[in-house]
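Hi V.,

Quick status before I head out on leave. The structure for the redesign project is tokenized and pasted below; the design run finished overnight.
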């Protein structure tokens, strides 16, 4: 719940920032000189890109949470079996061990979104965020029935 609140606050701050930057772009365009119109248009591109990025990220998080809820209802969420350091961080060797297991499961059944979801969690625990995101994107695509190229 805390993560959802943090995400909502961050998104609200970003939307406010996008509106502020957009208004400055409109003011620049309103002055009417060729230079300020050019700058104003350039400034308007930033909030457009930001809104697009925020939208895509929100959709990704929403779909990943839907998959987690579905997997939880099936009783298939991965159990947190990782050893931790005294500070609470995941032990690297423990994460690597679980990752190897999840990778083998995914290689045995590459068309099952559940395996890709669990692999994404294992990548995340191993602190490999880019691969975790790609594995989760694959899980979402497989769940939605979209064709996925072999990795």
């Amino acid at each position: 719940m805390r993560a959802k609140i943090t995400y909502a606050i961050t998104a609200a701050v970003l939307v406010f920032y996008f509106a502020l930057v957009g208004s400055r772009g409109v003011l620049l365009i309103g002055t009417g000189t060729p230079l300020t119109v050019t700058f104003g248009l350039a400034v308007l591109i930033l909030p457009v890109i930001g809104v697009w990025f925020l939208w895509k990220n929100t959709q990704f998080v929403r779909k990943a949470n839907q998959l987690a809820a579905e997997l939880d209802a099936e009783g298939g969420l991965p159990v947190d079996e990782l050893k931790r350091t005294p500070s609470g961080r995941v032990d690297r060797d423990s994460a690597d061990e679980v990752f190897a297991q999840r990778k083998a499961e995914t290689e045995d059944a590459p068309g099952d979104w559940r395996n890709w979801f669990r692999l994404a969690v294992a990548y995340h625990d191993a602190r490999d965020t880019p691969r975790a995101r790609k594995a989760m994107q694959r899980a979402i695509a497989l769940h939605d029935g979209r064709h996925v190229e072999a990795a």
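Above is the designed sequence. The helical segments are 2-31, 34-74, 92-108, 113-125, 129-143.

G. will cover questions while I'm gone.

Best,
W.
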